[in-house]
Records
---
Amino acid sequence: MELILFVALALTAGLAICAYRQRRDLQEYRLAIKSRDEAIGELKAQVDTLEREKVESQLLASTASDVAFDIILLLDENLNVVMANRAAERLAGRSNPIGKRLTDLVDSSELYNLVQVALREEESIEEQFAIGATNYRARSLVIAPGQGDRYIGIGLQDITELVNLNRARRDLVANISHELRTPITRIRLIIEGLFLDADKPKRKASIQSLKEIAMETDALLWLAQELLDLSMIESGEAILRLVKTPLKQVVDDAIERLESQATMKDLNIVSHVPQKLDVLCDADQLKRVLGNLIHNAIKWSPQGEAITISASEQEDEITVSIFDNGPGVPEDLRHRVFERFYQADVSRSGDEGTGLGLAICKHIIEAHGGRIWAEGNSQSNGGHFLFTVLKADASFGEDALVAENSGAQAIVTESAAPL
């Protein structure tokens, strides 16, 4: 009996010890599992953070490349597109060029050669070439992140406007040289003719010669003024003070200034501007606009013809028209004649002018809050230029307004300055 009790006690003790060990091991397993779960949670949080940072980095890189004006492409060694911004998509003519071969997207042997040279030389290459009608400055860079793979980064900058501007500036220098050389040469010849020892000048001939000198001097002053005006406008230093001004007075002053030039060509300048019209303008600058347009009409008008200036009022605007009986502006060129340095027909004008006058007019009128354009002359085949200015009683909601437009500052005041 005692033996049975001893055996039972031993079994009970063994089971108890075994159960204790199992509970201890289970607790250790639970602690290990908890520790592992915590470690997995931490790793998962790190992975999520890295994934979020990766997405944010990709988004920032994508946004930075998409907002760039320049074209950005990333190619693999087989010239397949790996990454392209929106500017590159516009060049390729498709919304998703990823995976497409460069030669299938852009028809440009110069760009293909640039990439090939970059792969061969493994250095940054810069070139300038045209794709269609657009001029580009291109740069390529080979990238080798590791494991033998190489990628080619390409950046294309549209420099068409810069090329056109440089060409226009070269033409401007050539035109200015011509414009300066001609009157200076004429002035020198006239003066030499006046003071030849063997031929004493007569009074009548001297007066005519002096008139010609004055005319050539006016041409030089006009050229210098155009260059100064454009420089002031583009630098933002031109300040317009808009005040209530009688339009007829401004027109009459502009006509008087150019009356001698019109007389030289036997031209009659006729004004049909009503006395009652008051405009909100900077009188000096508006006279400059009228002067440029009248000067342009004098230059193109046949001898003995008339130049007509008229004005009509609308709701808050007054439209001023300048008619002449010259050749006029062809319809397909009317949107271009207001560009800087542009001349509609150099061959017919004898390469006269710098192409700045109408551009200056556009700057000044837009700074006044108006518009300027060219039309066909319904009365004949001549030229017809129109522009608008605000009526003096136009409503602004404020007594004073400061605005910036076309590189000039406009300040509206109520007091009129003397002309």
---
Amino acid sequence: MTSPIHSLAAHHYTDPEIFRIESAGLFNRTWQFAGHVSQVANPGDYFTFQLNGESLFCIRNQDNEIKVFYNVCQHRAHELMSGEGNAKLIVCPYHAWTYELSGQLRSGPNIRSVPGFDRSEICLSTVRVEEFCGFLFVNLDPDAAPMDAWFPKAREELAAFVPQHAQLKPVRWEEIPEHCNWKVSVENYSECYHCKLNHPTFSNGVVRPETYDIQPQGHCLRHTTECQNLDQMSYPIDLDSNAHAGDYSSWFLWPLFSFQVYPGNILNTYHWCPVDADHVVVWRGWYTVDGVASELIDNLAQQDLDTTVAEDIGLVESVQRGLKSRGYRPGPLVVDPEGGVNSEHSVMVLQQWMREAATVESNV
């Protein structure tokens, strides 16, 4: 007789050393969300962003290629870019060393006076970037496998659920601070064992919980379910608009991002930004064709904030407090071989990835 699989020990969620190991390894060698392709629509368009303590910037060059660079001048390490905008050249504010949009050094004051100076040998340091259905992801590990190897079938499935993805732009972002470890928040997202008890609006007005299931696809957790009966839906949908209009699906891309498609082919996203062992900021994104304002999306996003998001904040913050209790002993996960909404088999898979991340530290 096999023994039940127990949840992770509490120190995985509370120990600053575990968070340090994850930051030094996991976050430096996995695909991380950077931004949306609409932010770099034209040559010279750029935006800056932070990733695990690194300042980076994304720019579309004159050859129409999207590039990501470490935001640091190769002269004396001043940051190059700030905010977002459009640039013909990349000019360091410190000494005016100037780079082409390709990252190659173009010029610098008095550099020709330096014997043996070869500007062709100086180029900004690049970061790997991939476009994934209009979203931009980066990986600080130059040897990492491509996203399609990490998340098999996810790209094709998402494109089928959101056939208009090439026309989408961000229309609304919500910043959600949570006083918990990032893994507590991700685990909460990655099971629906708690949904019927804690999310009545989601369970009764969006999805049909009895059809809910989550299965791994590589390092992706794929959520699937059907929409609720039309007369119970909390917003209108047209079942004839698309083959998947009556379906809900989510693709959680380990470790910190998820695409979520609500019935009616409505795309929204989660982006977890770990702060320290006890804090994470979750960004909720909503998207429409051309970024046009939508009363339906505004109402749905507000409903989500007032119900599911608010309910989950209370849950995950309570868990974080409980993990610090001397009375806590990790209990067995409810792993049903048949899967389904009342099984934590997805958490079992997720926690195995978490164990691996806590024991393997990258040198990247």
